[in-house]
Each structure stands twice: as structure tokens, then as C-alpha cells.
């Protein structure tokens, strides 16, 4: 009989707690109470799922290239800190991770103007040339180098200057100027970084060279 008092107190506490829970369920605001309990019993089939991520294609392009086209994506270096990237057909050709980029013009690891001329002069007809600047692409350029890039289809190389950002895709023997080129001038009024303009990003689909049957 001595336990009757404590048991009544426990029963009273339980009753009050249950009453509070029931009141909060039926009188609670939106998103609380009963609606929350309902959510516990919603089947996975009826629940709203997050939209699937957009599919990425070769080199991260938002859509696939047509047949007989090569997918590419390239990014110039950011200031003198982040190196450039060149991707072709889902293969990363150059990047800081691969440790095969350097300051200047990134066509392989060429930076010295004499080596650059030796590298470009013997290119075969139809060879694609991918160029991404890093830090300073122009200081070591001479008129012959600029002409070679112009012959590859560049329209901006003649104006390339100290610490400009430049990305370019050209080809040996091209008849017209390349549509794949971007150039941002180094200007203290518009630079994104102190002493350097913003990095450039370019992607697209390049037609394969047609071969005679």
C-alpha cells in the first residue's frame, strides 16, 4: 500500500505527457505534429527524390559531340598559381596534377622560343594544336612565332602581350581563322587577380580531318 502514492504520481506524469503530445499533434503549426508523423510512414516509392545530376559527356561537356567530331575542354592558368588544363576526347593531356605544365605557352612543355619554333615548324598538315597560357605567354614571343600561330588560325596572337590570358585551338594548313580562341588583356582596371586577368575556359567539338578515300 505504501507504493500507491508514488505510482499515482508516475501515472499522473505519464498522463500529462501523453496529453501534451496529443495536443501538440492536433494543434501544432504547419510541418509539425501529425504531418511529421505521417512522413514517417510514407513509403520510399511515394517520397520526392532529388533530381538526378545532369549527365556529363567527354571532357565534362554538357552534351555529346556529333559523329566525326572531337570533344575538348581547356582552361588557361589562373595568375601564376593554378596551372592550365587541356582535355581531348576525355583524356587529360595536360594539367598540374599530371605535372606536365609550365609557365608560358603550354604546348607540351615548350616555353623557350627556340624550342617552340622547332616544335611547330615541322607539324604535318591537319595537325591540331592546343595552346593554353600560364602566367605570361607573350614576353618570349618574336615575330616569327606570332606568324606561325597566325598561320595556324589565330587572330589574336598579334596582340598578345605581357600576362594576357589566352586559349587557342588551331590546325596546320587551316584556310580560315579558328573559331576556337579566347583572349583577355592584362589590365589593372579589369584584372580579376592582382597583376593577371581572369582564367579562360573554352570547350567544344572540333571536326575530324577528312581523309581522301
**Strand percentage:** 15-25%
Largest sheet: 4 strands, antiparallel
Please state how the strands of the largest beta sheet are arranged side by side.
3-2-1-8
Helix coverage percent: 10-25%
Q: Which structural class do you get from the secondary structure elements?
A: alpha+beta
Task: Describe the model.
Helices cover 23% and strands 20% of the residues. It has a 4-stranded antiparallel β-sheet with strand order 3-2-1-8, with no helix packed on it. It has 4 helices and 8 strands; from the N terminus they run H-H-E-E-E-E-H-E-H-E-E-E. The protein has 213 residues and is of the alpha+beta class. The chain has one domain (58-207). Strand 2 and strand 3 (91-94) form a beta hairpin. The chain crosses the membrane at residues 7-29. Pfam families: ILEI (PF15711). Keywords: Disulfide bond, Lectin, Membrane, Secreted, Signal, Transmembrane, Transmembrane helix. Belongs to the FAM3 family.
Structure summarized in a few sentences:
It comes from Myotis myotis (Greater mouse-eared bat). By secondary structure, this protein is α+β, with helices and mostly antiparallel strands.
Amino acid at each position: 500500500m505504501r507504493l500507491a502514492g508514488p505510482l499515482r504520481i508516475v501515472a499522473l506524469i505519464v498522463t500529462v505527457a501523453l496529453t501534451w503530445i496529443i495536443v501538440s499533434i492536433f494543434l501544432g503549426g504547419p510541418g509539425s505534429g501529425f504531418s511529421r508523423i505521417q512522413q514517417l510512414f510514407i513509403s520510399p516509392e511515394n517520397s520526392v527524390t532529388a533530381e538526378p545530376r545532369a549527365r556529363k559527356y567527354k571532357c565534362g561537356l554538357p552534351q555529346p559531340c556529333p559523329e566525326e567530331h572531337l570533344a575538348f575542354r581547356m582552361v588557361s592558368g589562373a595568375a601564376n598559381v593554378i596551372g592550365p588544363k587541356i582535355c581531348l576526347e576525355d583524356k587529360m593531356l595536360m594539367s598540374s596534377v599530371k605535372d606536365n605544365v609550365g609557365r608560358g605557352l603550354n604546348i607540351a612543355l615548350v616555353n623557350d622560343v627556340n624550342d617552340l619554333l622547332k616544335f611547330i615548324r615541322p607539324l604535318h598538315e591537319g595537325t591540331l594544336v592546343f595552346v593554353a597560357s600560364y602566367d605570361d605567354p607573350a614576353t618570349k614571343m618574336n615575330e616569327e612565332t606570332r606568324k606561325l600561330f597566325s598561320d595556324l588560325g589565330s587572330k589574336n596572337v598579334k596582340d598578345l602581350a605581357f600576362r594576357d590570358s589566352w586559349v587557342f585551338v588551331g590546325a596546320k594548313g587551316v584556310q580560315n581563322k579558328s573559331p576556337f580562341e579566347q583572349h583577355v588583356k592584362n589590365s589593372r582596371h579589369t584584372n580579376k587577380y592582382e597583376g593577371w586577368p581572369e582564367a579562360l575556359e573554352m570547350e567544344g567539338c572540333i571536326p575530324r580531318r577528312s581523309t581522301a578515300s
